[in-house]
Amino acid sequence: MKRNLLVFLLILFFQNISFAVDNIQKVYLNEAIQAALKNNIDLQAAEINVNIAKNNIKSANRLQNPSFDAFYFMGAAGNSEPKQLGFSENIEIAKRKARKNLAESNLKLAEKNLGYTTFDLKMDVREAYINLVASKSILYTLEQQQELQEELLQIAKNRVKAHKAPDIDAIQAEIALNQLITQVNTAKVNVSSALSNFNKVINAPGITYDSMDKLFSEENNFEEMLTPPPNSSFPAFESIVQKAINNRYDIQISKQEIDIAEKNLTVVARQRIPDLQLTGGYAYMNAKYADNGNFNNGAYAGASIVNIPLFYNYSPEIQNAALKLKQAELKYESTKNKAIKDVSAAYERFLTAAYNLNHYESKIVKGSEELIETSKDSYEAGKSDITSLIVMKQSYKSIIIGYSQALADYYNSWTNFLREVNDENFDLPDSL
C-alpha cells in the first residue's frame, strides 16, 4: 500500500514538472512587450478606471428623481379640505452641465493615466528583458572562462607531472578555478533573479516567459533590441526637448488636472444658484363635504425656489476650489521644469553609454581573445609563467564582462531616454 502511494506521488510530481516546463515560453523583446500588454494584471485593473470614469459621466448628467406626494387630512380638517395626490420634482439650475463637463474631464485624465501606465509597462518590460539577457551573457562568459580555467589546470598538472613546472603552478590554477566556480554560482542566481523580475513585470498568470536572446554575441542585433546602433548620428538636445515636452504623459496629466480644477471650481461656484421645485397633481373632495353637494375634482400646480444661499453661500468650498486650481497650475509648471532636466540627464547618459560601447568595440575587445590563446600556448610551451597567464585571463574576463555591462547600459540608457521623452518610436537619423 505504501509502495503504491509512493509511486502515485512520484508520478504526480513528474507530471507537475512536465506541466511547468510546458508553460515556459521563450520570447524576443517585442513579443515580451505584446505579452505584457495582453496579459498584465495591473494593466487590466488600470483599464477599469476608464470604464468607471465613463459611468461617472452618466451619473453626473442624471436628472433628479421625482417625489410622490399625498395629502390626506384627518378628523374635522378632512371635512373641508380636498385630498391631493401628486408629484414634485427638483430642477437644478446651471449645475447638471457643469457636473458633466467635470466628469468628461476626469475621463480624459483616466485615459491619459492609462496611456502612461501602458507606456511605462512597455519600458519596464524592455528594461527587465535587457537585464535578463545581460545576466545570461555574464553567466555564459564565466562558464566559458571556467572551461578555459579547467583546461589550464590540466595543462599545469601535465607540466608539473613532466617536471617542466613547479607544483605551485597547479595550486595557483586550482585556486583560480575555485574562484571562478563561486562566480559562476553567483551568476546563476543572478539569472534566476532576473528571470523572476522579468516575469514579475509581465505579470501574466499561468505562463513563465524567458528571453530568446543572449546579449553578448559576435553580431549584436540592435534592431531586435529595438535600439539604434551606437554609431548612429544623434541630434542636438535642443531639437529633442520641445518634442519631449509635448509628448510626456506627466505633463499632459498635469495640464489635464488644471482643466479638472477649473471645471470643479465652476461646479462648486454654481452651488450658489438656487434650484426650482415644481409640484403638481390631482385633488378631489367628496360630495357630502362639498358646499354645492357635488363631487369636485381637478388639478393643482405649484413652484418653489429652493436652496437659496441666504444663511450659507459656499464660500469655503469656492475658496478651496480656487486654491486647488492654483495648486494644479504650480504643479504643471514644476512638472514641465523637472521634465526638461530629466530629459537632459537621460540624453547625456545615453550619449556616454554609446561612446563607451563604441570604445569597447574599437579599442578594448578587439584582439583580446587572440591574446589569451597566444598566452596559453606560450605557457604550454614553457615560454611564460602561469601567474602571467592567470592575470591575463582575469583581465580578459573583466574585459568581456565589462563589454556585456556596457551593452546592457547602452540598451538601458536608450530605454531610459525613451521613458523620459515618452516616445517609444523616437526616430534617429541614419547611422554614420
Secondary structure layout plus pairing:
Layout: H1 2-22, E1 24-27, H2 29-39, H3 41-60, E2 67-71, H4 77-80, E3 83-91, H5 96-161, H6 167-202, E4 208-211, H7 238-247, H8 249-269, E5 275-285, E6 296-306, H9 315-364, H10 368-380, H11 386-421
Parallel strand pairs: 1-4
Antiparallel strand pairs: 2-3, 3-5, 5-6
Structure explained in plain terms:
The protein is built from eleven helices and six strands. With 432 residues, it is α+β, with helices and mostly antiparallel strands. It folds into two domains: 30-60 and 94-273 and 314-421, Up-down Bundle (Outer membrane efflux proteins (OEP)); 63-91 and 275-308. The strands form two sheets. It has a four-stranded antiparallel sheet, with no helix packed on it. A two-stranded parallel sheet has the order 1-4. Residues 5-22 have low confidence and may be disordered.
Summarize the structure.
The protein has 432 residues and is of the alpha+beta class.
Looking at this protein, list some descriptive labels.
432 residues, alpha+beta, Outer membrane efflux proteins (OEP), 2 domains, 4-stranded antiparallel beta sheet, two-stranded parallel sheet, 11 helices, 67% helix, elongated
